[in-house]
Structures
1.
Amino acid sequence: MMKMKKLYLFLILLALVAPAVVYPVFLMKLLCFALFACAFNLLLGFVGLLSFGHAVFLGTGGYITGYLMLNTGLTPELGVLAGTVGAGLLGAVYGKLAVKREGIYFAMVTLALAQLAFFFYLQAPFTGGEDGLQGVPRGELFGLIDLNDNFAMYYFVLAIFIFGFWLVHRTVHSPFGQILKAIRENEPRAVSLGYNVNDYKWVAFIISSALAGLAGSTKTLVFQLASLTDVHWHMSGEVVLMTLLGGMGTIFGPLVGAGVVISIQNMLSGGELGNYIHIIMGIIFIVCVLAFRSGIVGEFQKLVKKNFG
Amino acid sequence: MATIFGINLFALSGQLLVGLINGSFYALLSLGLAIIFGLLKIINFAQGAMYMLGAFFAWMALNYMGINYWWALILVPLAVGLLAILMERFLVRPIANEDHLYSLLLTFGIALVLQGLFTHIYGSSGLPYQIPAELKGGTKLPFMYLPNYRAWIIVSSLVVCFSTWWVIEKTKLGAYLRAGTENPQLMQGFGINVPLITTLTFGFGVALAAFAGVLAAPVYSVSPEMGSNILIVVFAIVVIGGMGSIGGAILTGLMMGVVEGLTKFFYPEASTTVIFLFMVIVLLVKPAGLFGKEA
C-alpha cells in the first residue's frame, strides 16, 4: 500500500511539471481521453458491461457545456458541472433501458441508443449540425482565473482528471465496487445472494456516463469546440480500444491505453500515413483480442507477478 | 392525382416501396446475423463491412474483369463467403471459448480494417453501378410507377430469405443446424462434424450480406460507409426481433423497413430515428424482443 502511495505521489509530481516539457494542449487532450477511458473501464472492466455507445455521453457533456458557455455568461466550472449532470441524466435513462439486456445485446442496445442521439444532434438546431459549436469561450475560472492561458487551463484539467480518477478508484474499492465485481464474475450467484443486480449495474452506468460527460465537457473547453465527431460511433470504438489496449479491469490501463492511442493518432495525423489511421486501429483491435487480451498493464502485472511475486 | 383523405397516394406508395426495399436489405442482413448467432453465439460486427464488400466486389468485377451483374450476383457471395470461412477458421475460432465480447471486438476490428482499406483506395464519395440492361425501365401501375429493378430487389431477396427459412426449418440439413444450436456437444457425439457445420454456417451468413450488397450496388452508390450505417440499424432490428427465430428476423427486417418508409412520408424528420425509438418501446414493453424466447 505504501508503494502505491509513493507511485501516485510520483505521478502527480510528474503531471505537475509535465507542461514545462510537453505541449500543454496535447497533455490536456490526453487527460480528457484518459478520463473518458477510465469512466468506460468502470463498466467494462469492473462490471463486465460492454457499452458500445459511450461516445454519446462524451458528446452530450460537450454540447451542453459548449452551448451554455456560448449563450450564457456561465463560469467554466459551472458549465462543466452542467455538462456532467446532463450526461449523467442521459445515462440514467439509457442505462435503465440497456440493463434490461445482457452480454452482446447490451452492446447492441447501447450502440443503437447512441445512434439515436447522434441523429438527434445532427438535426437539432442548438448543436450547429455538421459544423458543431465553434469558438466556445473558456471563460474565467470562478470568475477569477483566465483560462485562455494554456498553463492555467492545464492545471484545471489536471484537477478534474485527478478528481475523476479518484472517484473511479473510490467506487471500485468500495463495498459497492465489490458487488460490481461479484456481478462480473458470477451474476446468478450475486442474484442468489439477494442483490438487485440490475440496480447495481444501473448505478454504475450512471457514474460512468457522468464521468464520460465530465471528460467531454472538459474537452470542449480545451479545444473550444463541440462537434458530431464526439458522438460518432467511431469515438465509441476508440474508447473501447484504449481500454482494451491498456488493460481492462486495471486501474492504470485506460490511462496507458489512452496515451498510446492518442500518441499514435498525433503521429499519424497530418502525415502521409493519416489515411491509414482506421486500418491501424483495426489491426490493433485484432492483435489485442487474439494475442494480448490483458492489455499492456495487465500483461505487465502478470510479468511482475511471475518474476517477483 | 390520386388522393384519399388529402394524402397523396403516389408519394405514399413511393415511400412504401423504398421502405420495402430497405426492409429487404434489413431482412437479409439480420437473417445472416441470426443464423451466425444461432450456432456460434457471436454477433458478427463485420456483417456491414461484408455487405459493403459485396457491393465493391460487384463493382470491381464489372470494371476490372468485365463480369456482368448476373454473374456477380452468384460469384460475389461465393467469394465473400469463402473469405468469411477463412476468417472464421483463422481468427474467430481461436477465441471461440473466450468471452463472446471478444469476438464482437475482433469482428469490429476487421470491419474497421476493411472500411479503412476501401476508403483509402476508393475515397468516401461513392462509385456508380449501372442497373443491368434487362431490368431497366419500369411498369406503370394504377397508383404508382414501379421501376423494374426495385421490384427485382424485393422479389429476389424475399425468395432468398424464405428459401433459407425453408431449408433451416424443413430439411434434414436444417435439422442438423437447429440441433447444433440446441446442443453442439450432443450432436458431435452423434458423429456429426460440428466445427465444419459451424464454419459453413458462418460463410453462408456472411454470403447473405454480400448478396444484399450486390443487390444494393445499383440503387445506392457503392461507398465504404454504406456498411456501417446500415449495420447499426440492423442491430436495433435484431434487438427488436430477438434472435431466437429465423422467421422472426426476416419479418422484423421487412416490417421495420416499412415503418421507416411510412415515417418518411408522414414525419420525415424522424425517419432516421424511428427504428431506434421502436427499439426503446420494445425494450420497455417486451425486453426479450418480439420473437424472443428467453425470459
2.
Amino acid sequence: MSKTNTSRIPHYELLYIVSNKFTEDEVKPIMKKVTDIINNRGGKTTLIEEWGKKRLAYPVKNFSHAYYVLAEFDFEGEKVESIDRDLRMMSEILRHQIVSKRVKTAEDIKKEKEISQKIAARKEKEAEKEVKETEKKEEKEEEKKKGKVDMGELDEKLDKILETDDLL
Amino acid sequence: MDIIKKEKKCHFCVNNINEIDYKDAETLRRFINSYMKILPRKRTGTCSWHQRKLATAIKRARVMVLLPFIRR
C-alpha cells in the first residue's frame, strides 16, 4: 500500500448516467461523444461497459430510470478536472463521477494470493478444532448423565433413611 | 453459557477485499439499515480501516443513484 509507483500512468474510472428520454440507439452516439472528450484531452480509454437501463434509487430530474455506462481510462497530467468540466456541460448526462483507481501490480496479486492461501489454511485448522471441541462436549455430556444417575441413587437412599427416621 | 454473543468478524478482512467497490450496491446494502443510514461498526463488526473505506463507498454510491439517501 505504501509503495507508490511514480512512473505509472494514473488510472481513472468514470461512471455516468444518461437520461431516460433517449432510446437505446440514441445512447450510443452519446457514449461516443464521451470517449471523444476523454481522447481529445489526452486520455486513453481502456474499457467501456454498458450496464443498460437501470432503476434509479431515487428520482433525478423526474426520471426514475436511466442508462448506466462505465468507462476506464489512463490520463496523464493533473487536469482530470477538464474532463469533469466537459461532462458537466453535457445536458444528456444526469450524473457522472470520476474516481482514481489503483491498478494491481504483479506484486499485489502475489501478496493477495499468499494471504488468501493463509486464510484458507486457517479455516481448515478452525474446522479441525471445532470437530475436536464437539467430541469433547459429547464426552462431557456423557459424564453429566452419569452424575445424574448417581443423584437418583442418592435420592433413593435418602428416602429410605427418611422413612426409617419418620417415627421419631 | 450459550447466550454470550458470537464475536463478529470484518466481512472484508475475512474475504481479503482491500478496495471496496462503490458500484457493488448489493454488498453495500448489507451495511445500511432500513432508514438507509450507514450502520455502526458495533453492529456489523467491520474493522475501522474497512469502515472508513465503506463509508466513502456508500456515499459515492448515493451520489451515483445506486443507493438512496433516505427511505421513500
